[in-house]
Specification:
heterotrimer; A alpha+beta; B mainly alpha; C mainly alpha; A: alpha+beta; Immunoglobulin-like; 2 domains; 3-stranded mixed sheet; 9 helices; 13 strands; C: mainly alpha; Cytochrome Bc1 Complex, Chain D, domain 2
């Protein structure tokens, strides 16, 4: 079972932006409920009120003739109230929206991340002016708590949308353009996000996780991610590396520290350090990984990874190798 | 030609009514058999066909949705593959928006606008017939494609680049583009019909100030169609061109832009939902007036609200694109406009409540539907004002919250009034009454079903469930509410079955309706049930806003139109003063042939660009023959111009 | 009513006849075991045969009638850097693929063998690196580069810079190349 943590909801905010929107939501639904109750009450009263014989006259007449000045005043009043409520709504909305889009001001400056959408996985890069400090991973984003994060978004194929509801509203990822969104995670935890723009067969299972952790833990994670994979000491894992390099794995995946350098599929250099595989649809366990490698099409039909015919011994070796990629 | 007072039973100057009717029956009748059936020029025949066909598409679209709901009832369900699900949700949306909602509303207009304004037919009878066949061909194209695994699978909104040549192989998206073309041609035709008919064929005395609110609604809708539909035609043309002949409209690498599609589509797409919604507002006015025995309160304000909604509806489209990174200042304008459009709708609801207040309500099934409209549409409208807010929309855009909103406004705001109108006008169209008791059960099931299906979706969307997903994980916790929604969908299906049962039983053995079973205020209740092909033997002269209620016993009628050929009265735009007499065409096969040729043209364009020159040449033939003079026609025209009726 | 039903039925049949060709073109077979062993062993390297010559049995790759498979082949062509040697069909280090000259034969099984086994003078062998389904998808795409795939099945233009005409418009053309690979057999 994947740890869901319930942290995938606009009503469970864990960052300042989601919190502001949550506050806006509360205002919106309370006002809406009040308006609704008032209008329905008026409707019910109009429908069910007892009428005098004069009022219940079935002779057809214009309503304007029958209506007294009180009714007219009520309608005018209701219209004015509608306009005022909408105006208040507009003001509250703009007041909520401005700080959300304004550029973040953090103590150490914002952390910059680039997320690129593919069909149907997330390429995550931590850019740096120094090439040896860059980090490339997939489907799992680590961020330090309490520091704003600016995410630059684009896509290599179709339009996707980056959406971690507990942290921030969505932003589309459009091929040929760069959009951006910023968020801040104040509490350590794992926040789930899902693609929110229909992008093909596996749109439903294109999820990612944002792991917010204290700054030192985050820096340790970054340092580990920067390392290339080490040659495994274990003979089974070593054999697994040979299988990786001799079969179809090498055609699509990168494992830094080996000749495998293809960028078609996700970077697997630190696969074993991730909490999920297959873009958040499977837990990162041995059994799930085995099932995924042998027949991804039965788990995510239409996904880009083909089914692989692999000998059982080779599979065990490969699994041992992949589990060594921490 | 004269308008003169006619007292019933007087003999001296009044023409013999029975003789006139018999002559009109002969000259306005339709040849028997299949040939007569396809060559009809009676607006009621065409409108009935639109209604039946649109209802069939409603059922088909509902079946698509039922399959989707079965798939979504449990997490990780394997009832449908992702490919099948994608085709089904695309066809569901395309069917409901293009093949059901717009045609059924324009069909009600095509049937009742001429009757309500005291006209004999729409302005261009053969064009009307042609429009129906084009619509039918487009719908059949879509459903045949579904059955051969070739249905579009990228959503009814068909975003590029997903629907473009790079990411949708085969012909699926091309079929979508041409389905849109067919339905858009048909909608433009009905819009032209209604506008010209309302402006030029009103009965004498029906000044602009006295036009029924339903007719105003259809007029506003028709203008919206004229200005909105060409944009989706442009978008689908660009998509077809990108896929077929390697243009680069949406290719960012060569100077195109995927956002162009979104702007073009939503500039149509938002007015589209008002095109669906505004006729329903007209229906509510009709139903409410009849069943409260009061003319609707605040006529000028009601008309202005309809027109304002029509105009404002064109200024909202970017609210579908708030997540695309458009600058904040621009987005704020669309937030303001989207909130503002609540005002005319709100004013209308207040006026209706006022009408109810001073009225004497009769709780027939149409009245139940009209009341339920307010209850349901208000939920949709309020959630609509919520999603007008950019920060809130960025959380709920493309989630089930929007699915809930759109179904509340479309089902509550359009389909409920439509069903009310079905019950209200069924006696007029068929001459028989639907069963009230069965109708109440049907209403109850429908109301319960809609709420059960769509209210939980608000919660699902806020809790992170995106749209257009074929399944979801067990850990999401979305399973229970989805199961509830599926139960609601079953309830809706049951209610639709009850409705069909009611209709079938009524058609077979329902009580006869007579001209005016409800005591309505508008002119269609003056005609027979169902009306004769010529609607009125003597067109009434209108004396007040509620044409029937303000009609005095010695009300004048129009006499003097020819009875040996189809002749209609043309009146002036503002005051409906008699202006001219116009001969209408006899039944003609060419519109049907032209529609077939149009079908060949656009369907071949799915497969090859050669379809355009070859298909166009093919279409030119029936189009030319359509207008080709023949001697019988010429002789009639000469007779009409030279001879006057004494 | 009768007339209406008849008309409706006629329309449906008409449309169905038009669209029935869609069955194979639109199928998405995400996971299957395609026929591989038999056609490969049917490939021969010499025209000579002992005894009376038997006519070739034409082999039609089912993938050539499947638009999704050809589209996948196009994606794999780009992903696995076939264009590194073959450009977008015009050739470079390797021979062009969009012309009518085929060094090792243009039948689907020949192209299959070329990809799986490799060829002298530079074509790598992808045996073990690509699954059979992916190879057959590439075979179908390569054939579409020279117009051998039906127009309604071949892919449209790609969403990248315009580097070659779309496969729906290609036909067999005379060789278009910038240089001759060393040791190549000139057609």
């Amino acid at each position: 079972m994947i740890e869901w943590s319930g942290l995938h909801s606009a009503l469970d905010p864990f960052g300042p932006q989601a919190a502001r929107v949550h506050g806006l939501w509360r205002f919106l639904w309370i006002v809406s409920l009040a308006v609704y109750v008032l209008v329905i009450a008026a409707l019910a009263w109009a429908a069910l009120r007892r009428r005098t014989p004069a009022e219940a006259d079935p002779t057809p007449r214009p309503a304007a003739e029958v209506a007294g000045p009180a009714l007219r005043t009520t309608i005018v009043g209701a219209t004015v109230a509608t306009v005022l409520i909408l105006f208040v709504f507009l003001v509250v909305d703009l007041a909520t929206g401005r700080p959300l889009t304004a550029a973040p001001r953090g103590g150490r400056g914002a952390l910059e991340i680039e997320v690129t959408g593919h069909q149907w996985w997330w390429q995550v890069e931590y850019p740096s002016s120094r090439p040896d400090l860059r980090v490339v991973t997939a489907n799992e984003i680590h961020v330090p708590t309490g520091r704003p994060v600016v995410v630059t978004l684009t896509s290599t194929d179709v339009i996707h949308s980056f959406w971690p509801p507990s942290l921030v509203g969505k932003r589309d990822m459009i091929p040929g353009e760069k959009t951006s969104v910023w968020f801040q995670a104040d509490t350590p935890g794992v926040y789930r996000g899902q693609c929110a723009e229909f992008c093909g067969y596996q749109h439903a299972k294109m999820a990612f996780q944002i792991v917010a952790e204290p700054a030192e833990q985050f820096e340790r994670w970054m340092a580990r991610q920067r390392d290339s994979a080490r040659t495994p000491a274990d003979s089974l894992a070593l054999r697994g590396q040979e299988v990786f390099l001799a079969t179809s794995c090498v055609m699509c995946h990168t494992v830094r520290g080996t000749p495998a350098g293809s960028r078609i599929g996700p970077d697997l250099t630190h696969l074993a350090s991730r909490r999920t595989i297959a873009a958040g649809s499977l837990p990162n366990t041995r059994g799930a990984l085995a099932g995924w490698i042998v027949d991804p099409q039965s788990i995510k039909p239409g996904t880009r990874m083909p089914s692989n015919q692999i000998e059982p011994d080779d599979l065990q070796a490969l699994l041992a190798y992949l589990e060594s990629l921490k | 030609m004269t308008t003169q007072a006619v007292r019933p039973g007087s003999t001296a100057t009044a023409p013999d009514e029975a003789e006139v009717r018999a002559a009109l029956d002969a000259s306005w009748g339709r040849p028997v058999g299949l040939l007569g059936w396809i060559s009809t020029v009676d607006h009621k025949d065409v409108a009935r066909r639109y209604l039946v066909t649109a209802f069939v598409f409603f059922i088909l679209g509902g079946l698509d949705a039922a399959l989707m709901r079965i798939q979504l009832a449990r997490p990780e369900n394997r009832f449908l593959t992702p490919d099948q699900y994608n085709q089904l949700f695309t066809v569901h949306g395309t069917t409901m928006m293009f093949l059901f909602a717009v045609p059924v509303m324009t069909a009600m207009g095509l049937y009742f606008v001429p009757l309500m304004i005291g006209a004999r037919n729409v302005s261009f009878p053969r064009l009307n017939n042609y429009g129906y066949w084009v619509y039918l061909i487009g719908g059949v194209l879509l459903y045949v494609s579904l059955f051969v695994n070739s249905a579009p699978d990228t959503g009814w909104f068909s975003y590029v680049p997903l629907a473009g040549p790079g990411y949708t192989p085969g012909k699926r998206a091309d079929i979508y583009a041409q389905t849109v073309t067919f339905t858009e041609i048909s909608a433009l035709i009905t819009a032209v019909e209604i506008i010209v008919t309302v402006f030029k064929h009103r009965a004498p005395g029906m000044t602009l100030n006295r036009i029924p609110l339903f007719v105003w609604a259809m007029l506003v809708t028709s203008f919206m169609i004229l200005f909105a539909m060409p944009w989706v035609a442009t978008a689908s043309l660009f998509l077809a061109a990108d896929r077929l002949i390697a243009t680069h409209f949406f290719n960012p690498a060569e100077g195109g832009d995927p956002m162009l599609w979104q702007h073009l589509f939503w500039f149509f797409g938002h007015p589209e939902v008002y095109i669906i919604f505004i006729p329903a507002l007209g229906m509510i006015s009709s139903i409410l007036a009849t069943f409260t025995r009061r003319e609707v309160f605040g006529y000028p304000v009601m008309v202005l609200s309809l027109v304002a909604t029509g105009f404002l509806g064109f200024g909202l489209w970017v609210h579908h694109m708030f997540a695309t990174g458009i600058p904040q200042l621009g987005q704020s304008y669309f937030t303001a406009a989207s909130a503002m459009i609540a005002i005319p709708s709100g004013v209308q609801i207040f006026c209706w409540i006022a009408t109810l207040w001073v009225g004497r309500p009769r709780w027939t099934v149409p009245m139940l539907y009209a009341t339920a409209f307010v209850v349901l549409f208000l939920i949709g409208g309020l959630s609509g004002v919520m999603v007008a807010s950019v920060p809130f929309d960025l959380q709920v855009h493309d989630t089930y919250f929007v699915v809930a909103h759109l179904h509340y406004v479309l089902l509550g705001g359009a389909v409920f009034p439509l069903f009310g109108a079905f019950y209200y006008w069924f006696p007029k169209i068929t001459g028989r009454m639907l069963d009230e008791r069965l109708g109440r059960w049907q209403f109850g099931l429908f109301f319960a079903g809609v709420n059960l299906t769509f209210f939980p979706m608000h919660y699902l969307g806020l809790h992170g469930m995106p749209r257009r997903v074929y399944t979801y994980l067990l850990e999401s916790g979305w399973g229970d509410l989805n199961l509830l929604a599926t139960a609601g969908a079953v309830t809706i299906a049951a209610s639709v079955l009850l409705f069909i049962l009611n209709v079938v039983r009524a058609l077979r053995a329902g009580p006869l309706a007579g001209n005016d079973p409800w005591g309505g205020e508008t002119l269609e209740w003056l005609a027979e049930s169902p009306p004769r092909p010529y609607n009125f033997a003597f067109q009434p002269v209108v004396q007040g806003r509620a044409a029937l209620w303000s009609r005095t016993p010695d009300a004048p009628v129009v006499v003097g139109l020819r009875t040996d050929m189809r002749e209609v009265l043309v009146t002036t735009v503002m005051d409906a003063a008699p202006d001219n007499r116009h001969r209408h065409p006899d039944p003609d096969r060419m519109p049907f042939v032209a529609a077939l040729a149009t079908g060949v043209l656009f369907i071949s364009l799915v497969f090859t660009p050669w379809g355009l020159p070859v298909g166009a040449l093919l279409l030119a033939v029936p189009m030319i023959l359509w207008g080709w003079p023949n001697e019988e026609d010429n002789e009639k025209q000469r007779r009409q111009e030279r001879e006057t009726v004494t | 009513m009768r007339g209406a039903t008849r008309a409706l039925a006629a329309a449906v049949v008409l449309a169905a006849a038009t669209a029935l060709s869609a069955c194979e073109r639109e199928t998405r077979r995400f996971s299957e075991q395609p026929p591989a062993a038999a056609p490969v062993s049917a490939v021969v390297m010499s025209d000579l045969q002992p005894g009376p010559s038997t006519p070739d049995l034409p082999m039609r790759s089912a993938y050539e009638e499947n638009a999704w498979a050809v589209g996948e082949g196009k994606r794999l062509y780009g992903a696995f850097n076939c264009s590194g040697c073959h450009a977008n069909g015009g050739g470079g280090i390797g021979p062009p693929l969009m012309d009518e000259a085929w060094i090792y034969g243009d039948a689907p099984e020949n192209i299959f063998a070329t990809i799986v086994e490799g060829r002298p003078n530079g074509m790598p062998s992808f045996r073990g690196r690509l699954g059979n389904q992916q190879v057959w998808q590439l075979v179908a795409y390569v054939r579409s580069l020279s117009g051998k795939v039906a127009k309604d099945v071949a892919p449209g233009r790609s969403d990248h810079m315009y580097v070659s005409p779309q496969e729906q418009e290609t036909r067999d053309t005379t060789p278009v190349r910038s240089s001759t690979p060393p040791g190549a057999v000139t057609p």
